[in-house]
Design goal:
By secondary structure, this protein is α+β, with helices and mostly antiparallel strands. The chain is about 15% helix and about 35% strand. The strands form two sheets. Strands 1, 2, 3, 6, 7, 10 and 11 form a seven-stranded antiparallel sheet that branches. It has a four-stranded antiparallel sheet with strand order 4-5-9-8, with helices on both faces. β4 and β5 form a beta hairpin. The chain binds flavin-adenine dinucleotide.
């Protein structure tokens, strides 16, 4: 099953000036995301699976059930590509050709490995929790050994990666600028809503400040 992904081509082709291989920028994009898409090929069939993510230093972290097909195969060395995307705006030009999107996205290629050291695994799980809901970890009861055994944590080194971003107004052709058509950017943001208490939440437990 093990196959190296060193052959991943991370050179930007079209609109290469929007591309980068800046590690800090990649981390910024990863850290701002609550989910990613994990791509891999099995028996010639590509799959792209949405998942939660986290980051610890130079490793992107994923987690899942020990019986998950995706997790088991990735832990066994199946190459993968993890993509993180933020849609920041609709870029409405005067023509469909020049219309675009503002975005930040990162792709990380490689071979993930299961975190096997017990302490490291707990730290990685804590990192995932804090990534999704900063401040939450302090409120949670500790995971039981049974729960830890039921979960696999994967670490994917952020080594072979690429970043691409677009920001700013439309780039209309000069001959389109005088057309009587509105042009500009419609910003798009992902917002957290007001917390909804669980139906079985005992009375007197307030929404924590971090939410
Ligand atoms: C926002 C989000 C975050 C998630 N985070 C995690 C996570 O951190 N860890 C985790 O293990 N799982 C997560 N999931 C669920 C994940 O997408 C998979 O469903 C799950 O990992 C099952 O994997 P598997 O290999 O066992 O699936 P398999 O049993 O291999 O899947 C079999 C088939 O089921 C279908 N299928 C599986 N998942 C999906 C899906 N999400 N949507 C549509 N069809 C599907 C596909 O046809 C697939 O080929 C998340 C889902 C979403 C939407």
């Amino acid at each position: 099953m093990t196959e190296t992904t060193n052959k991943a081509d991370t050179r930007h082709q079209r609109v290469a000036e929007r591309g980068s291989h800046d590690f800090d920028l990649a981390c910024e994009i990863i850290d701002a995301a609550r989910m990613c898409h994990v791509g891999f090929t099995m028996k010639g069939q590509p799959y792209v699976v949405p998942m939660a993510l986290g980051r610890r230093g130079r490793d992107l972290l994923l987690h899942g059930s020990v019986v998950s097909r995706l997790i088991t195969n990735l832990a066994n060395g199946l190459p993968c590509c993890v993509t993180v995307t933020h849609l920041d705006g609709l870029v409405l030009a005067r023509s469909s050709f020049h219309s675009s999107m503002n975005y930040r996205s990162a792709m990380v290629f490689g071979n993930a490995a299961a975190v096997t050291d017990a302490k490291e695994k707990i730290t990685a799980m804590d990192t995932l929790v804090e990534h999704l809901a900063p401040g939450r970890l302090a409120d949670l009861r500790k995971s039981t050994p049974k729960e830890l055994n039921a979960t696999t944590i994967l670490r994917l080194p952020i080594e072979t990666f690429s970043v691409k971003t677009r920001s700013g107004p439309p780039n209309d052709a000069t001959y389109d600028v005088d057309l009587p058509v509105w042009a500009g950017v419609v910003p798009i943001t992902l917002e957290e809503g007001n917390p909804v208490p669980a139906p079985d939440l005992p009375e007197g437990i307030d929404v924590p400040d971090y939410l």
